[in-house]
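hiii so um. not sure if this is the right channel but i have a protein structure encoded as tokens and i wanna go backwards to a sequence. like what aa goes where. can anyone help
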């Protein structure tokens, strides 16, 4: 089955939504028009045609993009996604989000994103490798360990990153592991990267729970999307005592009012690709229902625009922690805020992945490796500190957490632009 179109329910494109949020925060900051002009546009867009020889001998050409939104605070950083609904606008929006995400957790990167318009489930492993290698070759003119460092995103993984790293290294004539993050451990990946986004998301939930006196022991949770982000968030939430009552993936949803065994479901999904193959104690429910079950904590961790004006009224969660990028449309955001739902915004809630990517890059450059304990401790320190900065800003200015996160991020990027000045 095809994954749901990320814009299927959207009132506006993800780019329009991203710009709207940025301008709202910029207005509040009183940001001057010159800086606003700079941050409103991506610095570079590379559009590539990717010819691939298919197994039957035909040549198919796929569209691909690499967008660098900002290089003001350091090299560009952002994932590569393979999805049939990828558009250039969406990649621009995601690159822009990466700029704010890196700034909000204060790591020295700008924002980038890449995408190829392809349904990878329709490709053989050989076709996938050839697509990845040719796409890497096409974008190699702008990526590099000091320029732009890709990472996994939707439908790409450590193996894809290994091919990216190898292709780039072959072109340069020597091994350059730091050109990508999210690599397999054996070739320079970091311990603790696989679950970093889910783990980071949980750290922000734990901090918010302390602020609002929500007891996590026995707190109910629903998770939409059971891939890298969703499954790890679910398992870690379960480990700290929460009751995960509903999880969904593209195939459907599982429910158990007494709590699901997320680790067992994760093991099944990793093997077969579908949570519905889980044979344990769970009831199958319609996919969309996972979002709407009354819970303390909802973690949307699938794709963008999943919570929209059409279903926001039916969502009954105290906290929404945005594991996915852009899961909530602006209209839905307003509806939920008016009903008292607290949303931990994507640029903060899912920043754990890019934070550990940064650790991987640092380890690569220094040719040393940290222990898993060191990675988790440093991730926790940064996520807790970033969450508290955002929370305090929100309290001080009487704004929601999303606006507060954007205020901090835009301020940091704007200051970098001011200090560096405009060339020439
Ligand atoms: P993934 O491909 O590993 O998992 C996506 C999951 O969502 C799969 O289980 C898929 O079946 C499910 N899904 C797709 N459509 C769905 C639908 N309509 N309803 C329910 N489930 C659906 O991807 P991922 O890496 O976990 O990324 C998920 C989201 O998190 C994306 O928005 C991505 O940009 C964002 N994100 C990922 C990372 C990371 O480190 N992987 C970091 C930051 C943000």
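sure thing!! here u go:
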């Amino acid at each position: 089955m095809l994954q749901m179109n990320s814009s299927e329910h959207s009132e506006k494109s993800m780019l329009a939504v991203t710009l709207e949020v940025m301008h709202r925060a910029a207005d509040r900051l009183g940001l001057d028009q010159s800086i606003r002009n700079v941050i409103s546009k991506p610095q570079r867009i590379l559009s590539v045609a990717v010819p691939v020889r298919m197994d039957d001998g035909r040549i198919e050409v796929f569209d691909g993009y690499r967008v660098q939104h900002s290089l003001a605070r350091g090299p560009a950083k952002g994932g590569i996604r393979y999805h049939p609904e990828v558009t250039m606008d969406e990649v621009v929006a995601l690159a822009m989000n990466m700029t704010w995400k890196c700034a909000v957790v204060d790591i020295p990167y700008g924002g980038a994103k890449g995408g190829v318009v392809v349904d990878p489930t329709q490709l053989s492993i050989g076709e996938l490798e050839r697509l990845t290698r040719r796409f890497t070759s096409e974008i190699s003119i702008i990526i590099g360990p000091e320029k732009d460092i890709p990472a996994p995103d939707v439908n790409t993984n450590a193996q894809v990153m290994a091919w990216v790293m190898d292709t780039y290294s072959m072109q340069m004539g020597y091994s350059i592991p730091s050109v990508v993050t999210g690599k397999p451990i054996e070739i320079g990946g970091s311990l603790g990267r696989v679950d970093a986004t889910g783990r980071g998301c949980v750290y922000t939930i734990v901090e918010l729970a302390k602020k609002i006196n929500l007891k996590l022991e026995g707190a109910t949770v629903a998770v939409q999307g059971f891939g890298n982000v969703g499954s790890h968030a679910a398992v870690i939430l379960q480990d700290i005592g929460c009751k995960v009552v509903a999880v969904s993936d593209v195939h459907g949803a599982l429910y158990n009012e007494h709590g699901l065994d997320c680790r067992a479901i994760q093991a099944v999904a990793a093997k077969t690709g579908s949570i519905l193959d889980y044979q344990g104690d769970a009831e199958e429910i319609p996919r969309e229902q996972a979002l709407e079950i009354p819970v303390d904590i909802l973690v949307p961790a699938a794709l963008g625009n999943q919570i929209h004006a059409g279903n926001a009224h039916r969502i009954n969660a105290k906290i929404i922690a945005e594991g996915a990028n852009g899961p909530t449309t602006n209209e839905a955001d307003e509806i939920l805020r008016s009903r008292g739902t607290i949303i931990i915004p994507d640029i903060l809630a899912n920043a754990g992945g890019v934070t550990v990517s940064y650790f991987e890059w640092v380890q690569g450059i220094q040719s040393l490796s940290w222990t898993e304990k060191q990675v988790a401790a440093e991730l926790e320190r940064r996520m807790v500190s970033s969450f508290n900065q955002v929370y305090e800003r929100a309290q001080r200015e009487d704004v929601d957490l999303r606006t507060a996160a954007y205020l901090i991020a835009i301020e940091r990027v704007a200051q970098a632009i001011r200090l560096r000045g405009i060339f020439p």
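oh and The chain has 14 helices and twelve strands.
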